[in-house]
Amino acid sequence: MQNILVTGGCGFIGTNFIFYMLSAADYKGRIINVDKLTYAGNPDNLVAAEKKFKERYIFHQADICDARALVDIFDLYAVDAICNFAAESHVDRSIVKPDAFIKTNIEGTFCLLELARQFQHQLELFHHVSTDEVYGSLGRDGHFTEETPYRPNSPYSASKASSDHLVRAYFKTYGLPVTISNCSNNYGPYQFPEKMVPLIILNALEGKPLPVYGKGLNVRDWLYVIDHCQAIWEIMKAGRRGETYNIGGQCEMANIDLVGRICDLLDEIAPRPDAPPRRELIRFVKDRPGHDMRYAIDFSKLTDELGWMPHESFESGIQKTIHWYLDNQAWVELVKSGAHYQRWMKQQYGGG
Predict the structure, then answer these.
(1) What total of structural domains would you count in the chain?
(2) Residue 344: pLDDT over 60
(3) Where are the alpha helices (DSSP H) in the chain?
(4) Quick one: which of 166, 173, 213, 317 has the fewest CB in 10 Å?
(5) Cβ pair 301, 236 in contact under 8 A
(6) Torsion angle of the four alpha carbons 262, 300, 164, 251, in this order, in degrees rounded to the nearest 10
């Protein structure tokens, strides 16, 4: 794998993966980043990569549904692996406007698979990045394993489940070399500010209300994004073809507890003299439709086969994340100034 095509590389996880790969001691090849640049894709994320790594990092603005553009890219760069991050990924947006999720997550994955089949003679791997949300909702006990039946509950998770099935079918039917990873909730640098962790950090810094769905009792397993990137690369290198691997952070937490811990850390790191504790900014809002109660990942298959474990605890990861947002206010302001972001925040929460 010397010429890896990364789709959706200007998004949150894709950006972090590209930086991780270009700095990895065991990868000296090229990264070809293809991104349509929707609202969540930011090419400014990777300006430093363009300057530092020059010939090893290449960017093309293109839609994964544009077969002609991608054929040209395959021909030009002799692409021998695909890592597919390209996806619409926000559950709330999928409830409001599901058609974009069907287009990108299902049709887009199909187009990539057809492209991979066309170039199968030179392709080492098609790695597909997915989510634990395809499994549905857990009760109080148990964990998702790779054998857990799919029971998606939102248009987003249903579209990702569909794409997973397509990838597996292309392995079984056409012998396409594939791996799939299903990860828990990510957090870290470059995450679009409408997602929960950056939304809470940035609103708390500005003294704005902190919206929490329902009673805040929904539980998620939190994974620091660089740990996720490392796991993906381990799977790409040594994962068994045709297999699925779950990736988790070993960090289950109710949403209200997550928000409270971020508030407490910000009170220490960025205190507000004469202001009340940031926990007092918490506001419970109407729950989202079909809100899954609990996710939890069993990633023992990944540990047993490939030796991967998360490096960051939640405490270390969230501190790194908070400091990144504090140190990158220009990036934050540029993203938040966009009309698309402001419109969405007003629609969802009644303010920017």
Answers:
(1) 1
(2) no
(3) 12-23, 47-53, 67-77, 91-96, 99-101, 109-118, 155-174, 196-206, 225-238, 255-269, 300-306, 314-327, 329-336, 339-349
(4) 173
(5) no
(6) -10
Q: Looking at the domain assignment, is residue 284 inside a domain?
A: no
Residue 352 lies in a domain: no
Record the tokens describing residue 314, joined without a space: 């939640």
Return the structure tokens found at 191.
Answer: 């995450």
Catalytic residue flag (residue 133):
yes
Which residue among the candidates 88, 132, 164, 227 is catalytic per the annotation? 132
Distance CA 342, CA 337 (A): 7
| CB environment 237-253: b (16+ within 10 A), e (fewer) | eebeebbbbbbbbbbbb
Does residue 285 lie in a domain region?
no
* 213 close to 285: Cβ distance less than 8 angstroms: yes
What is the CA angle 44-50-55, rounded to 5? 155
Query: Does any domain span residue 283?
Result: no
- Say whether pLDDT at 91 is over 80: no
pLDDT at 345: 44
66 is catalytic: no
Taking each helix axis from N to C end, the angle separating 339-349 and 329-336, rounded to the nearest 10 degrees, works out to 80
Contact 72, 64 (CB under 8 A): no
Catalytic residue among 156, 170, 190, 325: 156
- Arithmetic mean of pLDDT over the chain: 92
What is d(CA 347, CA 341) in angstroms, rounded to the nearest whole number? 10
Q: Annotated catalytic, 257?
A: no
312 within 8 A of 250, measured Cβ to Cβ: no
Q: Give the lowest-confidence range in 202-206, 209-213, 300-304, 335-339.
A: 335-339
Q: Which domain holds residue 94?
A: 3-192+222-252+294-313
pLDDT in tens, 24-56: 989 999 999 999 988 778 888 999 998 999 889
Catalytic-role residue among 133, 164, 194, 234: 133
**CATH number for the domain that contains residue 30:** 3.40.50.720
Pairwise CA distance, residues 193 & 316, whole Å: 20
Q: What is the pTM of this model?
A: 0.92
Other beta carbons within 10 Å of 321? 22
User: What pLDDT band is residue 246 in, cutting at 50, 70 and 90?
Assistant: very high
